[in-house]
Design goal:
With 478 residues, the protein is mainly alpha-helical. The protein contains 16 helices and 15 strands.
């Protein structure tokens, strides 16, 4: 088993057969744009609704290379990363990230998210995503502080010697607020679209109880809480200072997150994008608890915590920048120290509207967005082949396509959307897939050739563009 660090160097639903026959009639029959998808026999899972969507959207994309990228990427999660089965009469879906055989709560949620609009058309796809929710419940009940898990509950991690409370079945135990937010986001959207409630059983309620408990522990109002983390490593961002508890914070009502969604350690533990995400997730959980279970005490607890965190953000996390005015800090400590930056990984400051945490028209977000997409942000890189946000995880001058995609998903500006699509089309290094990161001056220098989250998110961006700005896809050379 290798870690992310070790890989850093490297229409109506037709039957599947009918779809594939139809596809051949519309495919771009050139060697340059030959499909990169696995053969049908080697695909992990096939959804008629997804295949129909690929066929339908490809017809609308005038740019052959962009259409080819969409075809390769949108089904990548289903093609290569899912392990679906029935366990005790319930669907169970284990989802790896790609080149690492482990299931991140964040990645698994994000990887299947773009398929949710199709679940009412495809029972098999509905079951698959219900299976992800069931699997995530097992993970959270095993350890709400862990971020990544194995399918085998007895498997011992290569990180077994980390100085934290490791258990069998856990790949990595980095505490990240968003690890508990993403499963709620997925559950809430699944419930809203499908109307099904059987997956939200007493075990699911227990995961919400654990989420609230963990969030409150990490508010650190009276003590440091039960979690700490240290690792013997040369990577500074893989370890946590001050005996594994992080640098001191002043209790403000915010929730501590010792790691970012990049799996890099925070500098200041109040990670503002993740706290915004927690507000949204707690309110979504409260609505579900109220309408599905009539569990008013826990719903009230969720709403009260959300309100407390929101108040704390607006009191403590807004900074007067000399060039951009009032902006949100990326991290703070409650004592007045702030870390001004943004990281491409979601939740990010740029992604706040994508996560329904804030409106695109919010004046502070507008200022923050201008800051993030400028050279004032230390992790915004401009080079010979592209511009975009990155982060410490892949190093300096490495742009993350996820950041470019999120930029496109959080703007209504047609020119900006086209620009983002052009950057993505021209930086896949002739592979036909979206990578974790690439060098700002040479896209052939990239990390992670198999990174399903980025691939599926790119598919979501194309579908969203078709819905909001369809004329863009009619351009022959984006």
């Amino acid at each position: 088993m290798k870690s992310r660090r070790k890989f850093i160097q490297q229409v109506g639903i037709l039957s599947t057969a009918a779809l594939l026959n139809n596809y051949k009639a519309f495919a771009y029959q050139t060697e340059t744009f030959k499909s990169k998808r696995p053969s049908i026999a080697n695909r992990k899972f096939t959804s008629d609704a997804v295949e129909a969507t690929i066929l339908d959207i490809k017809r609308k994309i005038a740019d052959p290379e962009l259409a080819w990228l969409f075809e390769n990427c949108f089904a990548n999660t289903l093609d290569t990363t899912v392990d679906f089965e029935m366990v005790n009469g319930k669907p169970d879906t284990y989802v790896i990230t790609g080149d690492i055989d482990a299931m991140w709560l964040r990645d698994s949620s994000a990887q299947v998210w773009p398929y949710l609009p199709l679940i009412k058309k495809d029972k098999k796809l509905n079951e698959l995503i219900a299976g992800v929710i069931h699997r995530q419940k097992k993970c959270i009940l095993l350890d709400p502080y862990a971020n990544a898990f194995y399918k085998d509950p007895n498997k011992i991690s290569e990180w077994k010697n980390d100085l934290t409370k490791m258990k069998p079945g856990i790949h990595e135990r980095k505490w990240e607020i968003d690890s508990l937010c993403y499963p709620i986001r997925l559950a809430y959207k699944y419930w809203n679209i499908s109307g099904e409630t059987s997956v939200f059983d007493t075990e699911w309620v227990k995961t919400i109880e654990l989420t609230v408990q963990t969030f409150k522990e990490q508010q650190r109002k009276t003590n440091l809480g039960p979690y700490s983390f240290q690792r013997t490593t040369a990577w500074a961002t893989d370890g946590v200072a001050m005996s594994g508890y992080g640098y001191p914070v002043k209790p403000t009502g915010l929730i501590c997150s010792l790691f970012r969604p990049s799996d890099d350690a925070c500098i200041y533990s109040f990670h503002i994008p993740a706290n915004f995400f927690a507000i949204v997730s707690l309110r979504q959980a409260a609505e579900m608890l109220h309408k599905i279970h009539a569990n008013e005490p826990l719903a009230k607890e969720c709403n009260e915590l959300a309100n407390e965190v929101e108040k704390a953000i607006y009191k403590n996390a807004i900074v007067d920048h000399p060039d951009f005015g009032k902006i949100f800090a990326y991290e703070i400590n409650g004592f007045g120290s702030t870390n001004l930056m943004d990281d491409a990984n979601v939740p990010s400051l740029l992604a706040l509207p994508y996560l329904d945490a804030i409106k695109i028209t919010n004046p502070i977000y507008i200022n923050t967005r201008k800051y993030v997409l400028s050279n004032a942000n230390p992790f915004y890189f401009t080079g010979k082949v592209a511009e975009g946000t990155g982060g410490p995880h892949a190093g300096m001058n490495m742009i993350w396509p996820i950041g470019i995609i999120v930029r496109g998903l959080t703007t209504g500006n047609e020119a900006e959307i086209r620009h983002c699509l052009h950057l993505l089309k021209t930086t896949h290094a002739d592979t036909g897939f979206i990578h974790e990161s690439f060098d700002k001056d040479d896209a052939k220098v990239f990390t992670r050739k198999w990174f399903a989250w980025a691939n599926t998110l790119f598919g979501e961006f194309i579908i969203n563009t078709n819905l909001t700005h369809p004329t863009i896809l009619g351009v022959k050379n984006i």
